[in-house]
Amino acid sequence: MPADTPAYTPAYTIDTVTDLVQPHQVHRDVYTDPEVYRLEMKHLFANTWVFVGHDSQTPNKGDYYTTQIGDQPIIQVRHSDNEIYVLYNRCPHKGTKIAIDREGNTGKFFRCPYHAWSFKTDGCKLAIPLKKGYEGTGLEETVSGQGMKSVGAVKNYRGFIFARLAEDGIGFEEFFGDSLSSLDNMVDRSPAGRLEVAGPPLRYMHKCNWKMLVENQTDTCHPMVAHESSAGTAVKIFEDMDWPADKPKPMAMEIIAPFMSPYEFFENMGIRTWPNGHGHTGVHHSIHSDYSAIPGYFEQMVDAYGEEKAKQILGENRHNTVYFPNIMIKGPIQQLRNFIPLGPDKTLVESYIYRLVDAPDQLLARTAMYNRLINAPTSMVGHDDLEMYERAQEGLAADGIEWVNIQRLYEDGEDFDHEAVENGTTERQMRNQFHAWVKFMAPQPAPAQAEAAE
Amino acid sequence: MSFPAREDLIDFIYDEARMLDEGRYTEWLDLWMPEGVYWMPLDYKQTDPDLVTSLLYEDQFMLRLRVERLNGARTFSQKPKSRCHHVIQRPFVDVMDAGANRYVTNTNMHYVETRLDDQFLLAITATHELTVIDGKIRIANKRVDLLNCDAAFGNIQLLP
Ligand code: FES
Ligand SMILES: [Fe+2]
């Protein structure tokens, strides 16, 4: 490097990056800037509780599943004590990924394919070949001598595995609070109170920032516009068909037609926000409210929970629940979408579905249909969503306007530390996410005594 | 034709690919039996279309919707339109059962789809279940397996 080249100074640091968020707008650099992205990976995805996988993906001892938390390669594995462990997918010797396939069974231990260092399925070091080569070298005192590294903290909440990379930080219950009611509702819809993953996820690559996808989950003003070509055309074709009024609509129509609901429908459905960036659409009703009953299911639910509780569980029809930072679940149809960041302008969306244990198969058939009709790379609905994100990612390069507006139904002095229910077309949940973004980008306060024990 | 020759079945597969490449979708829909389903599995060697996710599992209502949407005025992801291209290997005729009026072909293809500056290639195997009605060959069912079905894709907008 020539001597007069100034040292590289990053455009943003942990102290300045939060200037990009204002109450009613955010600077475009939060979607496009590589340094902002790097800070997100380093801080936001380390300080928050991020979804890893479902425990039914690793049902037997030694089963593992590989994924990412932010940009970190991760293994979820079931240890001999039957607990789920979450480890960095990196050999402590030279960095080789320990598992490269998406899932498998490793038996009682992991064995690195490069020089055969081996590790128990909780990450502890088991053996190193030619051990005498390390005698007296001090390997035991290095991090490499300790085995595979675990993440900071792991929680198995009713089968859903979350992890916090940071050693210290906010506790699981405090981070999610009452938002766990959406996960509860999804699991309670099984008469056995249990879900099982159903097949591999859809994997859909998006050339846009991960936050655009998360924001879209509570964007109730786009379906009737962006999806007119699919949902609107479906309604039109169906009207041409002279379908008898008393005959149940085809399942595909039940799924796709509500996307054309008018603004009032979405206004009245309501949006609820919780502290730490979580929130959901569909407080009072949703696009999932009017699905036909599946024969026998209600009776099974009454047997399992009693009539009152069964009605209460099934009466909840939340549309999309966002768990900050990067997943969305649909309780009424047992779907989870994971928005995995791969770069400032690249996001992998994995859409999983789950079987309600002990419920009729027709429910799962509807869920599988929903997944492929709406969220597949081959989906007519998905095509228009992706088109919008990619156009936005490209359009943000324009220098005329540097801010992205999130002002719909904005009020001065909004308090995101308390739960609130608002008009269903508010962009408050997007503002809530950015409020949490600022909070968790920052260095976290030292843990309180009680939490340190968790 | 009440009993197609092997050659007729093979020509049919070529003609269908050409229709898709030339965007003659209305004609293409007419090739189908009313109960026909177009299946594109998500998993390698997937056997269950119903209780796990597929990429496509579409009946005639959905296929018609797909075709009408491609031509719609507000189909934003098709402004500008995609184009596609099939290069097909000579189909194998695996079942020729005139008695049951059932014929099955298996065809390897390279499918190319393009829009704006993006172009991608899919290696696919199409399995056609065919039948003859009123002297014409018709598609009873079609299954399209992608060699890399478990890879992450961007938009696949036309019909491989
Ligand atoms: S890199 Fe794993 S044992 Fe050497
Ligand atoms: Fe959408």
From TrEMBL, chain A:
The keyword Iron applies. Residues 49-119 form the Rieske domain. SUPFAM superfamilies: Bet v1-like, ISP domain. One of its GO terms (molecular function) is dioxygenase activity. CDD domains: RHO_alpha_C_AntDO-like. Pfam families: Rieske (PF00355), Ring_hydroxyl_A (PF00848). Keywords: 2Fe-2S, Dioxygenase, Iron, Iron-sulfur, Metal-binding, Oxidoreductase. The keyword Iron applies. InterPro entries: Rieske_2Fe-2S (IPR017941), Rieske_2Fe-2S_sf (IPR036922), Ring_hydroxy_dOase_asu_C_dom (IPR015879), Rng_hydr_dOase-A (IPR001663). Belongs to the bacterial ring-hydroxylating dioxygenase alpha subunit family. PANTHER family: 3-PHENYLPROPIONATE_CINNAMIC ACID DIOXYGENASE SUBUNIT ALPHA, CHOLINE MONOOXYGENASE, CHLOROPLASTIC. This is Aromatic ring-hydroxylating dioxygenase subunit alpha. It comes from Pseudodonghicola flavimaris. The lineage of its organism: Bacteria, Pseudomonadati, Pseudomonadota, Alphaproteobacteria, Rhodobacterales.
TrEMBL record, chain B:
GO terms for molecular function: dioxygenase activity. Transmembrane segments: none annotated. The keyword Oxidoreductase applies. Its EC number is 1.14.-.-. Keywords: Dioxygenase, Oxidoreductase. Pfam families: Ring_hydroxyl_B. CDD domains: ring_hydroxylating_dioxygenases_beta. The keyword Flavoprotein does not apply. Belongs to the bacterial ring-hydroxylating dioxygenase beta subunit family. This is Aromatic-ring-hydroxylating dioxygenase subunit beta.
